[in-house]
TrEMBL record:
Residues 58-251, 335-533 form the ABC transmembrane type-1 domain. It holds the Pfam family BPD_transp_1. The chain crosses the membrane at residues 60-81, 93-113, 133-152, 188-215, 235-256, 277-301, 345-362, 374-399, 411-434, 510-533. The keyword Phosphoprotein does not apply. It is found in: Cell inner membrane; Cell membrane. Keywords: Cell inner membrane, Cell membrane, Membrane, Transmembrane, Transmembrane helix, Transport. Coiled coil: none annotated. This is Iron ABC transporter permease. GO terms for biological process: transmembrane transport. GO terms for cellular component: plasma membrane. It is a multi-pass membrane protein. CDD domains: TM_PBP2.
Length: 544
């Protein structure tokens, strides 16, 4: 009984927060699809889902996410091998550089690709601007780091003796790969692919920026229906469809994570020297680096061009509001708002994430207790894939009446961003806390230490670096969050991603130049944070 009481007390706070600020808004949004004028109307949902445009949007969502996932896996596997298994100078810096796109604000990625592929851009002659190819390229750019980190971490822990034995028996390198290495890595590959598909299917800023009005996914269609057409029932119906798909994918990813594999219980293998057979993989890795660097380099170069000359005018203009009063507040003020919001969102996400990580990693004594902890783990992962647009609009339509009337509260945006960052924090801390030997806690308890004292003396020494890394992930995710923030940020206090989207939506060379400069500032901030996280050498997105 005492164990169940402790479990309930640990879970009470995070469950209450997620219940009020996630389940309630999402439920409110979903109910709009099933209830019209106060009456239960499931036929309205069916009518929306049978519309020809909805079918086209759903199909585009599925095939673009599938293609982007396949390309990310094909490019990510060689890069994972090179950066995690070969002894190359500077590979830690390269790994950090590849992680930067994953935490870049999606609006920044969209602006960078438009500048690269648009008319007058370095690749403008290809005519890819505003095409599905551009959208897929943006999704691959954003998610290839997931494959590199997840598969690379598994590859580092892979037992090399079976492959060496197969080679000693005369197997060619290709045979060793297909018969030994690939089966051992399959759980990590499939798990990474599942997460990448989930991220691609729920992408918002990239598709909104690169697709315009011609191409839409379920995520951007929900945004269009709520902000432009005011068709709340149709938006809610699409939210229902997306939530069902997301829950299925999260369940699949959870099963894949729990699949035993050959890396379990192994220590990290030392990188080996480069051989001649590694050259194709190195060439693919160089191609990935060039593909990642090209949009960012184009963005940086473009931000220093004004009136066909090199200039800092775009950066100096950040203290203004753009041409034709495009903004209500200068970009510099928006940067201060973003930093303050990110600090608030970070401590909120850390407080909840640490509680959840402790909750789900403590040793279970019965099958029922283990199931309860597993259900709680899945419950707290739901914000990972549920539409940020759905969450943001759900805040507006549900948190507007006492006792939770928060529509005018300055805490609304950081709360929403903390929920978005919560799965990143949990998945960074859980593997570390789960690896702590429970016998050490029992020994501390037998010596008279309270549970809190045992946590300080046993868990904290192992978890302080992951805690710092989780802070970096939460901070970077908050800086770049756009989906929910686009609904919740007040016009006089916008965040930088919201400002960038407004600037590119207003005509004028000055506005576009300011958008480029603001994008570089925001990208630099996230890159610095992630380089600091990489120095801590802890698992990141690979933990998913």
């Amino acid at each position: 009984m005492r164990r169940w009481l402790t479990l309930a007390l640990l879970a009470a706070g995070p469950v209450l927060v997620v219940g009020v600020f996630f389940v309630l808004p999402v439920s409110g949004m979903v109910s709009r699809g099933f209830f019209a004028d106060g009456a239960f109307d499931p036929g309205g949902v069916l009518e929306v889902l049978t519309r020809p445009r909805v079918a086209r949007v759903a199909w585009f969502t599925v095939w673009s996410a599938a293609v982007a996932t396949a390309v990310a896996v094909v490019l990510g596997l060689p890069a994972a091998f090179v950066l995690h298994r070969l002894a190359l100078p500077g590979r830690r810096i390269v790994r950090a550089a590849l992680l930067v796109p994953f935490v870049l604000p999606t609006v920044v990625v969209g602006v960078a690709f438009r500048l690269l592929l648009g008319e007058g851009g370095p690749l403008g002659f290809l005519g890819l601007d505003g095409t599905p190819v551009a959208i897929v390229a943006g999704l691959v750019f954003f998610n290839v780091a997931v494959v590199v980190r997840a598969v690379g971490a598994a590859w580092e822990s892979l037992d090399t003796r079976p492959a060496e034995a197969a080679a000693a028996l005369g197997a060619a390198p290709a045979q060793v790969w297909w018969t030994v290495t690939l089966p051992a890595l399959r759980p990590a590959i499939v798990g990474a692919a599942s997460v990448v598909f989930l991220f691609c299917a729920t992408a918002f800023g990239i598709v909104l920026t690169l697709g315009g009005v011609h191409y839409a996914t379920i995520e951007t269609e929900i945004y269009l229906l709520t902000t432009t057409l005011f068709d709340l029932q149709a938006a809610a119906a699409l939210s229902v469809l997306q939530i069902v798909v997301v829950v299925v994918l999260l369940g699949l990813a959870a099963r894949l994570r729990s699949t035993p594999d050959a890396t379990a219980g192994r220590t990290t293998a030392r990188p080996r020297r480069v051989r001649s057979g590694d050259l194709p993989a190195i060439a693919v890795t160089v191609l990935v680096l060039v593909a990642v660097a090209a949009p960012i380099a184009t963005l940086v170069v473009g931000s220093f061009r004004a009136d066909d000359a090199w200039s800092l005018a775009n950066y100096r203009a950040l203290t203004g509001v753009g041409s034709n009063q495009a903004l209500l507040a200068p970009v510099t003020d928006a940067l201060v708002t973003s930093l303050r919001t990110a600090v608030d969102a970070t401590w909120m996400a850390l407080l909840m994430g640490l509680s959840v990580a402790v909750l789900v990693t403590r040793r279970s004594q019965t099958r029922t207790e283990r199931r309860a902890r597993g259900l709680l783990d899945g419950f707290f992962m739901l914000p990972l894939g549920v539409s940020a647009v759905t969450l943001g609009f759900g805040f507006l339509i549900t948190l507007d009446q006492p006792p939770v009337d928060l529509r005018s509260s300055p805490l609304l945006v950081p709360i929403a961003q903390a929920l978005v960052a919560l799965p990143l924090v949990v998945r960074t801390l859980v593997p570390v806390l789960a690896g702590v030997d429970d016998r050490q806690r029992q020994a501390a308890a037998s010596l008279g230490a309270s549970p809190f004292r045992a946590m300080l003396t046993v868990d904290l020494p192992a978890a302080w670096k992951p805690l710092l890394a989780a802070s970096g992930f939460a901070f970077a995710a908050s800086l770049g969050e756009f989906g929910a923030t686009s609904f919740l940020a007040r016009d006089e206090h916008p965040t930088v991603p919201v400002v960038i989207f407004r600037l590119i939506g207003h005509p004028g060379e000055l506005n576009y130049g300011m958008a480029l400069a603001a994008s570089v500032v925001l990208a630099t901030a996230t890159a610095v944070v992630m380089l600091a996280v990489e120095r801590l050498r802890v698992p990141s997105v690979g933990a998913f």
